[in-house]
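Troubleshooting log. The previous structure file for this entry was overwritten by mistake, so regenerating from the original sequence record. Sequence copied from the archived sheet and checked twice against the printout by T.R.
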Amino acid sequence: MGRLSGKVAFVTGAARGQGRSHAVTLAREGAQIVAVDICEQISAVPYPMSTPEDLEETVSLVEALDQRCLAVQADTRDAKAMQEAADNAVAELGKIDIAAINHGIAVPGGWDETTEEVWNANIDTNLTGAWWATRAVIPHMIDNGGGSIVITSSVSGIRAFWGLTSYVASKHGLIGLMKGLAAELAPHWIRVNVICPTNVATPMLHNPVIFGMFAGQEEGTIDDMDLPARSMNLLPEPWIEPEAISYGVLYLASDEAKHVTGVTLPVDAGMSQMPPGIPPAAQERLAELEAQG
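Regenerated output below.
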């Protein structure tokens, strides 16, 4: 028996990256999956987004684990589309026990680069879209006698980073959303928690635009990103694999966390606890440069 046997999980951003990993991990533990993703490009996003083919691959991976997977191509920014997705999922699979509200984008830009388009893209997708997706599943969880909602924020929801003004605002907002919902939904035995990843090896992070942001130029390579990203974490690695986040989602979704609600769980290699000063990885590199003369 898996830890989630008999459960149904509604997963947004499921076509690739962390969302796909969450869908597969929850399915491996016995859950049937509702895999939701926009599967099209948002104009403000400077890197390629997911495709219908990506979503089909997620379905195949879940079905290979002998679990049902209902694929839904829909935009979380559309309240009606999210309600239809949740209602159809319940009609098809009977209930929703778990919601992994995972979708998100990262459009870089400091305050002076944050146009109306950039602001709206980050806030509407990351924060408002999370609200509409969550809002759609709540009545079904109430009818079902409870459930677990796990919202993916970021270390950017705990602390600030340069050049990501609207992204940071959206991720902080998700923690506020979680706290408000945790308080309101507790009488219904609906638990609401947030998970805060460090840099994760997904297409949202590993692309020339984000590499360039770390390198301080228009575009870059993964090598340009390695040292700056490594310097952000206490543990000596630049990024972690999606499965590391999925294990946190699995815990919060499972009955093992039945008394855990209203918490922010960093799975961040120590990023949120980095002390002030020059981090060890940067110190090592500076020492190498000095030794080279």
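The mean pLDDT is 95. Archived copy saved in two places this time.
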